[in-house]
Specification:
The strands form two sheets. The protein has a six-stranded parallel β-sheet. Strands 3-2-1-4-5 form a five-stranded parallel β-sheet, with helices on both faces. 40% of the residues are buried. The radius of gyration is 20 Å and the shape is globular. It is α/β, with parallel strands linked by helices. It has two domains: 139 residues, Glycogen Phosphorylase B (Rossmann fold), CATH 3.40.50.2000; 161 residues, Rossmann fold (3-Layer(aba) Sandwich). 36% of the residues lie in helices and 14% in strands.
Length: 328
């Protein structure tokens, strides 16, 4: 029996982008055993995939240095994989796949094409770049596994009960400042929706985000913070699947919400949806961005500081523009 081992440790959005690819691969190849190796906290989402998909949670910090990676290699060998695909292509995974290659395993890896990304940033005319979904698929195809990747909603839950009350989720945070809509303006978005008797559910993670979301929930009627209350990521996903829309940044929560059939509206600042990281099956008409700024995108990942210091790409989007887009 063929057993494909897939490796992807970070970041959250990139891990979640493997899910539509693995879902299609597993359903079209039911006799193929698939194991994804990633960080433990995402395991609950992968558990929603077909039964021939398995998950191994590994914290890379527990396998430091060359000897730590050797130990990880020995542990992964015990899973008896027949093929290895490195969907991360960083130093850690390069060393791992080197070990597998030396032991004569068929190995492939994702091609990031940094030259194309740099050219995209410098080009005045933005052309759709190859997506991470396509890059993941190519890495798997190299090992001889064929499957189609069709842009369609995933069916991870058997039942998606919609409420008769309009319910909108908002995930206002991201990993970098260049991807976060100013919180004062986002609070205005929340207040507008609240004033229209729309139930608003706030998503986030960590102590600071929890405090901010609870403050908004206490201040405005119909607003609920679910930060730290749902137990795991699959529970967040299930709640998102019952909502009428979800508003996110270019963030992990965008990719999480996109795994449902709920419409996802995303705000883009320093980054650009044509850069290859727009979430699965997202409607491009639901993208909210300023298209009149020649300075954007200034970064593929949004991790560079604004050269003007004011993040005008985000501040220049009004709360009314966002609510009008969501409410139609």
């Amino acid at each position: 029996m063929k057993h494909l081992l897939l490796i992807r440790f970070s970041a959250l959005g990139d891990i979640l982008m493997t899910i539509p690819v693995i879902e299609a691969l597993s359903r079209q190849n039911p006799d193929l055993q698939i194991t994804i190796v990633s960080r433990p906290f995402v395991g609950s989402v992968f558990a929603l995939l077909p039964s021939n998909v398995h998950f191994i949670g590994i914290n890379p910090r527990e396998y430091k240095g060359i000897y730590g990676l050797w130990r990880m290699f020995l542990e992964l060998r015990k899973l008896h994989p027949t093929h290895i695909a490195d969907l991360h292509d960083v130093l850690r995974t390069k060393i791992l796949r080197c070990f597998f290659t030396l032991w004569n395993y068929p190995v492939s890896h994702i091609i990031k094409d940094r030259k194309a990304r740099k050219s995209f940033l410098n080009s005045q005319v933005k052309i759709q770049q190859e997506t991470s979904f396509e890059r993941y698929k190519k890495a798997i195809n190299k090992l001889g596994f064929e499957f189609e990747l069709k842009p369609q909603p995933l069916q991870l839950f058997e039942c998606r009960t919609k409420s008769y009350v309009r319910r909108i989720g908002i995930a206002p945070f991201a990993a970098h400042t260049g991807k976060i809509y100013p919180l004062k303006q986002m609070e205005k978005v929340v207040s507008i929706l609240s004033s229209k008797d729309i139930e608003v559910y706030l998503f986030g993670a960590g102590v600071e985000e929890k405090a901010k979301m609870e403050a908004w929930a206490a201040k405005y009627p119909h607003v609920h913070s679910v930060v730290g209350t749902l137990g795991n990521m699959a529970a967040e996903l299930q709640l998102m699947s019952t909502l009428d829309a979800v508003l996110t940044m270019d963030s992990g929560n965008m990719h999480l919400a996109a795994l449902t059939s709920t419409p996802v509206f995303s705000i883009w600042g320093a980054t650009h949806p044509l850069g290859g990281f727009l979430a699965w099956n997202c409607n491009k008409d639901h993208v909210i961005q300023r298209e009149d700024l020649r300075c954007r995108p200034c970064s593929i990942f949004g991790n560079k500081p604004c050269k003007f210091g004011d993040y005008r790409c985000l501040k220049g989007i009004s709360p009314d523009e966002i609510t009008n887009k969501i409410l139609g």
